[in-house]
């Protein structure tokens, strides 16, 4: 028997219409670096998204399935593109402006982007690539920047505001199509540390369901009383779903644009008083150093969602003291990205909550996990058996984009024969469903037939009061096969010797796991999305570029 329920497609268009009407007064505030930020209501954003859709269709001729890319910071205009492009039936492609030039060109060509909307401040990055981007016919420039760098470009150049001004803001002025919810809405390439970048294509349905999940109390749990500071870039897995989730619930957004350094972030928080924020650990490390040196009022920001790489427990403790509660979350581009969030179960004291808070978190109903051991067997959830995490669910990828006319890519190392996503993350799951990651499969240190978790060592080193940051990688060792190399960044004016650091680790990790190779560095190299660049460190070591002390 079929159900008697309506079958209404879950689309981005519905989220747009809902946000701009029911939550029309909610605001997107964009930092400008001037005395006043730019403020725009959801109603205005909806109107401007409609103007953009009209302009893309009538003037640029953008039709179904064509790719409109963005090379933008987090700002109101980027939110407008987020809603206009998928709602008109085309596909939004967010480009990571921190990628090296060759990778960026490769990605634009692979996706066959026809239009690029770019912030004026990013033009110096785009202009030199244009000769190698034959599919790009139109460039739309938003905001200030030296447009002269585009002189001579084969693509037609438009001004974002002039383009919008020529078109209607009335929602009914665009013939929004009734879309199949399974159609592509948005695409985003993974940062890809090995091989070519891979395109993940999100559907209207996956975005809709993921947004509902972001809004659950178990997840970020924000309401229309909240303002969220969206530091995680809109080009990094859709800013963890926040632009869509906020339009569903009327949550105000504070957008930092290009002002991502600790000092302006601290100023933004003090002046605009967000209640929540989302970013990777390195951002919070930087902000902590900043407010330690120059105290600021962070009291509004009681909750922070932190993920993208492991959050050191010491960082959580430091923010607890400031009254800011970091909530750990795990996910990846292929999971839209939210997989787990570490809200402890009910009925516990603060002390009992701690071991739950430092896990990666609990799975929501729609993300089903399993752990697969080295021999391929499914492991129990006993918080001890470590295996590769595999997941499946309605906002989890089943393949990668194959390029124009190409077949979808389903690499064996990423997808199991029975259709689960192989995350490449290694960890354990507790009987009540909390995930603790011990490593990336490729970062685990294989020492004399035993595994050492690089993350566990990093957390133990970062708990030392004089240490600001630490990254541990595997390096070749004649006797043990591999051993850990610890790269350490000290806090300003701190001094500590390696023997003291080694002694500090004893009792925190097994004695045989304590590294004998140490190097002090000014900063740990980071990837384009702010994670420790372990491949880069291994390369520096192999090239003899690090001044390693062995003891
Ligand atoms: P990306 O697709 O660039 O977002 O990278 C996803 C990867 O980041 C995951 O597979 C994990 O290895 C890592 N990651 C994300 N969140 C966490 C977390 N909370 N703890 C540890 N690793 C994380």
Overview of this protein structure:
The protein has 16 helices and 26 strands. The protein is an alpha/beta fold. Among the domains are: 198 residues, ANL, N-terminal domain (Rossmann fold, 3-Layer(aba) Sandwich), CATH 3.40.50; 106 residues, GMP Synthetase, Chain A, domain 3, CATH 3.30.300. Helix 2 packs across helix 3. The N and C termini lie far apart (72 Å). Adenosine monophosphate binds next to strand 14, strand 19 and strand 20.
How is this structure best summarized?
This protein has 551 residues and is an alpha/beta fold.
| Tally of separate helices | 16
Classified in CATH, the superfamily of the domain at 7-204 is: ANL, N-terminal domain
Mean of all residue-level pLDDT scores: 95
The number of strands is 26
Beta percentage is 15-25%
Termini separation: 72 Å
Small-molecule binders: adenosine monophosphate
Poorly predicted runs of 5 or more residues: none
CATH architecture label of the domain at 7-204: 3-Layer(aba) Sandwich
**What shape does the CA trace take?**
globular
